[in-house]
Amino acid sequence: MVEQPPPGVYRYAVREEAAVTSEHVDRSTVRRAADSATGAPLVIVDLTAEGRVAFARVTRRAARIGGRDQGWHHVAVVVGDEIVAFPEIDYDDFPDGFPDTPAIHIQAASDADARDLVQRLRG
User: Fold this and answer.
1) What is the CATH number of the domain that holds 89?
2) Which helix or strand (DSSP H or E) is residue 106 part of?
3) 13 is a domain residue
4) What is the pTM of this model?
5) Residue 17 falls within a domain, yes or no?
6) Residue 8 has pLDDT above 80, yes or no
7) 15 within some domain
8) Which segments of 37-106 does DSSP mark as H helices, in order?
9) What is the tally of structural domains in the chain?
10) Which domain covers residue 67, as residue numbers?
11) Residue 80: burial class (beta carbons within 10 Å; 0-12, 13-18, 19+)
């Protein structure tokens, strides 16, 4: 039996204001779902029209920086003070980021985690 170390706590410096905020999310539509391909639990967060523009801007920026640096860049999805998702933006497949995304899909570790995140996002 191999003993696992306790999970670490990582701290990140916040260098900019959030690109997408709670004002960009339609809180009433936040919901749980299952990934159609894998069955993994998901949380779906619908964006407002302004949220789509803001998300497009931040993913385009990440993709372009990735293209310049020749490495994938990440976009942090933060709820409260916790990073709940940290997706990579593949600049080869998405050189302009995600220009018109109606919703963000966040894969949860478990159904219980998905339920908890839905409650937190609905406020």
Assistant:
1) 3.30.1360.200
2) strand 103-107
3) no
4) 0.82
5) no
6) no
7) no
8) 49-69
9) 1
10) 23-122
11) exposed
